[in-house]
Write a structure and sequence with these properties.
- This protein is mainly α and 707 residues long.
- Helices cover 70% and strands 0% of the residues.
- The chain is built from 39 helices and no strands.
- Helix 8 runs antiparallel to helix 9, helix 10 runs antiparallel to helix 11 and helix 26 runs antiparallel to helix 27.
- It is elongated and about 120 Å long.
- The termini are far apart.
- About 1% of the residues have low confidence.
């Protein structure tokens, strides 16, 4: 009985070999063990349909051990809800591998097995199977005390796996009875008696709970022993350790091999890990399709990690899935109702964006709060973003920070990142650049890519760290290589401008184009400029204007300005003066001097809009108050001739003097000088003195825009 470690060491590989031979000889007990190996993926690749086929003749005869085994095998297909035909059709391929059984299908086998096996107290196999059914497959785990009795009896009869099961009750059973120390004590006893699964649990609980009783060599031996005996959970744990290289030398090839083995044996965590790596490593359609297939299989097996990802895949097109918003919403809703905390996050995002359902911000916030109550750090983060962006009403940065803080305390990388950004900028919390940088570094260590970009900006401008442009570009490069869109934009921008790196437009476009496609309006603007000016690519005004339009629609002022000029001049798009003026006003209203000045000139000329000198002067003043010399010359000239404002030579002098005082725009300075020569003969000395005094006292408004 190597499967349960009865009368000797536990070894799934040997169990399957011996059971297969016994099954061929017609031994019913061997058929049951063979079916458990196949159904649970222990010692052999998982084959649930074959396991069920082996058990069905015995179950038909009400064999209690076979009924118990059938219940355990059925537990691999954990569809504990009623699903729509759309769901069943979408998962048809996966359901062939993992048949879906609902609780009522399992309950009848559980009842038959428990009723008959409970009296067989001298049979260790009967005792351990009865204990498993009572502990893990009965409603609400109401029979844990009876399960403990069964396991204790099986342990007395020489079943090493029974001690592991007692440890599991202490670590994962009734919360009021949990004791990590007792759990580890039982695992150690089980391991000494030859239980393979105990080795895996010793690694899992001690490494996760900070008990450093074993060193890395001991941990690796524990797992290697379990792997050699065919334990898929140990394969997944060892693969994870080899991939990360935290306490073992990194070996990605061996990690991948072990993940493949564990996934083939039905380990849902291995399926999830493989799916994630396949998505990261390639855009190949076959790879993406396999990643999605593995994720769906993990979901069908009840993998907590995969529930939110599967729902997200259908809702948002992630993970290589085809968009099916209604199905994604169905999965997220039912999973959230069933208590999956991270499903609340996905459901909240669906409500927030109106995907698969009507947009409902209050409902999104309510759903995030439900996720928070269930311990979801991602829900804390999302609710924080909701407050930060003002989607729950007026932006409330203090509330946003409180939720980021809560998510950070649970260890959610994106929340840690947002906490760091808030501390660095002093938004919603007292500014603390040192603490902010520390949070961002921690988030980077946890794999959060936007923190790389933010650290790059900190080094670029010397915010919380010593100014270091090469270091900043190094961070942008790392972020860009991980697909972080603003990292791509900032890196591309530096290559476009030739700041900190050689001026290299083809390389700039290599990074700017994916950022533009990801919806970064600043990147869309620069890509448009490249096509408009024929820099790094052939001139294509249609493509340029399409990028300017995207940037404009996302609210980027320079994109709005360039799109307005395309509409006004019919460049890459049919001329439309009315629309052009609308977008020019949009850019001007955001404080873009270039747009404000050109809008003023449009009102002066009356070419594309009805002439309105008063409006012209208003827009010239907007930009002049921010210190723009071109606008100052235009406003000064308006006062000189009394166009749109009452003629006022002192005001004219002030603005023309300010335009002449700057060195940035030579042409504007020359024009202001010409206008001043026209003005001076008209003025009294006292008026000139007052004009000089006003110019000397002038202080530009904060937040002057790019001219």
């Amino acid at each position: 009985m190597a499967y349960y470690g009865i009368g000797g060491g536990q070894n799934y590989n040997l169990a399957f070999t011996h059971a297969t031979a016994g099954s061929a000889a017609g031994e019913n007990s061997a058929k049951i063990i063979q079916s458990l190996c196949l159904g649970m993926g222990r010692g052999v690749e998982q084959d649930i349909p074959r396991a069920i086929k082996l058990l069905q003749p015995l179950v038909a005869k009400s064999d209690p051990l076979a009924c118990g085994a059938m219940a355990e095998v059925m537990s691999q297909g954990r569809l504990d809800m009623t699903w729509s035909d759309d769901f069943l059709n979408e998962f048809a391929e996966e359901l062939k591998l993992v048949p879906a059984y609902r609780p009522k299908d399992r309950e009848k086998y559980v009842e038959v097995a428990i009723e008959t096996l409970s009296s067989q107290t001298d049979d260790p196999l009967a005792c351990v199977i009865t204990g498993e059914l009572l502990a893990w497959y009965s409603n609400g785990r109401q029979s844990e005390s009876k399960a403990r009795t069964c396991f204790n009896r099986a342990w007395e009869l020489g079943c090493s796996e029974a001690a592991t099961e007692i440890g599991l009750l202490y670590s994962e059973g009734d919360p009021s009875q949990r004791s990590l120390d007792k759990a580890i004590g039982w695992y150690e006893q089980a391991a000494k008696a030859g239980s393979i699964s105990a080795n895996t649990n010793l690694f899992f609980y001690q490494s996760d709970n900070g008990v450093r009783k074993y060193n890395s060599e001991s941990y690796s031996k524990l797992l290697a022993t379990a792997v050699a005996a065919g334990d898929p959970t140990a394969m997944e744990c060892l693969a994870d350790a080899l991939w990360k290289g935290d306490w073992l030398q990194r070996d990605a090839v061996e990690a991948w091999r072990l993940w493949e083995m564990a996934a083939a044996r039905g380990d849902r965590s291995a399926m999830f890990s493989l799916s994630a790596r396949l998505q990261q490593g390639s855009q190949d359609e076959k790879q993406q399709a396999r990643a999605w297939h593995l994720l769906k299989l993990a979901f069908l097996r009840g993998g907590i990690q995969s529930v939110a990802d599967v729902a997200s895949g259908f809702l948002f097109g992630y993970s290589g899935a085809h968009l099916q918003p209604a199905l994604g919403f169905e999965i997220a809703s039912k999973a959230a109702s069933a208590g999956f905390a991270d499903a609340c996050t996905v459901l909240g995002i669906a409500y927030e964006r109106g995907i698969g359902t009507s947009k409902n911000i209050p409902k999104a916030a309510e759903t995030y709060r439900l996720g928070i109550d269930r311990g979801s750090s991602s829900s804390s983060y999302q609710l924080g973003i909701l407050y930060k962006c003002g989607l729950a009403g007026k932006a409330d940065f203090a509330q946003a920070y409180s939720h980021f803080l809560k998510g950070a305390e649970i260890g959610y990388p994106a929340a840690i990142s947002e906490k760091g950004k808030a501390l660095l900028d002093g938004v919603g919390v007292e500014k603390d650049t040192e603490a902010g940088i520390s949070c961002l570094r921690k988030a980077v260590d946890l794999g959060e890519a936007t923190s790389l970009t933010y650290l790059g900006r900190a080094y670029e401008y010397g915010e919380g760290v010593e100014k270091d442009l090469p270091k900043a570009i190094e961070y942008f490069q790392k972020a860009a290589e991980r697909g972080e869109e603003y990292g791509e934009y900032y890196l591309g921008q530096h290559y476009y401008l030739g700041t900190g790196v050689p001026h290299d437009v083809p390389t700039a476009l290599r990074w700017l184009e994916p950022a533009a496609k990801a919806g970064v309006p600043e990147a869309q603007f620069l890509v448009g400029c490249c096509y408009s000016e024929g820099v790094g690519v052939a001139v294509d005004n249609v493509v340029a204007t399409s990028w300017f339009r995207k940037s404009a629609e996302l609210g980027y002022a320079l994109g709005q300005y360039n799109f307005s000029q395309a509409l006004l001049n019919g460049k890459g798009i049919q001329s439309n003066p009315e629309e052009g003026i609308k977008w020019l006003k949009a850019g001007a209203s955001q404080g873009l001097d270039l747009a404000a000045i050109n809008l003023g000139l449009e009102y002066v000329s009356g070419t594309n809009v009805t002439a309105n000198p008063v409006e012209a002067a208003r827009w010239f003043r907007e930009a002049s108050n921010r210190g723009n010399p071109i606008a100052a010359n235009c406003l000064g000239y308006s006062y000189l001739i009394g166009n749109g404002v009452e003629q006022d030579w002192v005001e004219a002098y002030q603005w023309l003097a300010l335009a002449m005082a700057q060195e940035k725009d030579v042409e504007s300075k020359e024009r202001a000088t010409v206008n001043m020569k026209t003005l001076l003969p008209k003025m009294l000395k006292s008026e000139i003195a007052e004009g000089k005094e006003r110019a000397a006292k002038f202080v530009p408004n904060a937040g002057a825009s790019t001219p």
